[in-house]
Amino acid sequence: MLKQTPSQTVGPYFAYGLTPEQYLYDFKSLAQNELVSIDDNPITIKGKVFDGEGNVIPDAMLEIWDNQNNLFGRFGTGTEKDHSFVFKTAKPKPIGTNAPFLSVILFMRGQLIHSYTRIYFSDEENNDSDEALKLVPVERKNTLVAQKKENYYHFDIHMQGENETVFFDI
Amino acid sequence: MSQLIYNPFDMEVHPPRLSPDYKSTILRAPTKPLVLLKQSLAELSGPVFGDFNLGEFDHDLTKNSIKNGEPLGERIVVHGTVFNENGQPIPNTLIEIWQANSCGRYVHKVDQHDAPLDPNFLGAGRCMTDKNGNYKFYTIKPGAYPWGNHYNAWRPNHIHFSLFGANITNRLVTQMYFPGDPLLQYDPIFLGVPPKGRDLLISKFDLDATEPDFALGYRFDFVLRGHQTTPFEKI
């Protein structure tokens, strides 16, 4: 067996390589934060990434993957005034007793290896019977559930602390 | 239907999440244990960029941002193969590339290092592996630069890479270093990797790949997570 290539941090200066159009660099982006067109009635997911002192992280990059709809998005937290991330995408559907979710891959300076989490939705019925959510300690489940607001879903990511987001080993 | 189960990250070679000498990890590394997830279709699939329309000079960072002349610095050609742990080459997979210029300055607006920008060098590129898993791109050798981690901290010369592989379990973001760099022994990001993994991040000088009168050659292979043959039960 060959040995895996070790991971290294994405660092603070990824934007012109990975999210160039979002940060207004003259290079074509591979992926955007609007995954479907406005005609397809996208949902909006919005939130912030916080460090262990509760400060907003302005140089994180999130990728979301929806295997059901084959949609991939990418956004850095360095361009919105309040350092939020924003995605507009389709809402996946429940499958059997499992709840719909989006896979999230999170990168930032200070992470030598990326983190995986998931975004579930507060207005879904199957969250209690979802196979992956069942593995999560009850008191931490809410860290994986985006809260439905009037016109968007709110999902914050806490790297540490009382509300530390559940990250998965996949 | 049976599917492959992918091996876990090999923590003999990957850096731990918390690596206090690299100070930014202290407030950003998750502290609670990760929740082990059975790989499902969501983890065993991922975006495919085989049909992404690469620009003509995406694989040539010495040409893709020319404004009024050639970028300054030492031209290099970097090539290699993307494999999985099983030794199988990964064809048609995308590699994203970004780096500092020859003076150690990034185009990124946040980089305040007092070294000149090069009007003819952006430092971003992409290439795709061919049907045998091989890739090649041209660039300028990046310079070392100071950073604020500790007194007199300098990053060794390095090129950043992002790879997707077969699915999201294979996602890899890493950095390639150069042989003989005296800064490696002081760099907490490089040293965050356990000793067994460090050599895997250092490219090899490659005289056969060196193009006479044009560019020095370096070889760097990538190895993504492999798989077991255990059948996967579709849920």
Describe it:
- The complex is a heterodimer of chains A (about 170) and B (about 240).
- Chain A has about 170 residues and is an all-beta fold.
- Chain A has one helix at about 15-20, and strands spanning about 45, 50, 60-65, 70-75, 85-90, 100-110, 115-120, 145-150, 155, 155-160, 170.
- Chain B is mostly beta strands.
- Chain B has a single domain (about 5-230), classed as Protocatechuate 3,4-Dioxygenase, subunit A, CATH 2.60.130.10.
- Chain B has helices spanning about 190, 195-200, and strands spanning about 5, 35, 75-85, 95-100, 125-130, 135-140, 145, 155, 160-165, 170-175, 205, 215-220, 220-225, 225-230.
- In chain B, the strands form 4 sheets. In chain B, strands 3, 6, 11, 12 and 13 form a 5-stranded mixed β-sheet that branches.
- Chains A and B meet through helix 1, strand 6 and strand 11 of A and strand 2, strand 4, strand 5, strand 10 and helix 2 of B.
- Strand 11 (about 170) of chain A pairs parallel with strand 2 (about 35) of chain B, so a sheet runs across the interface.
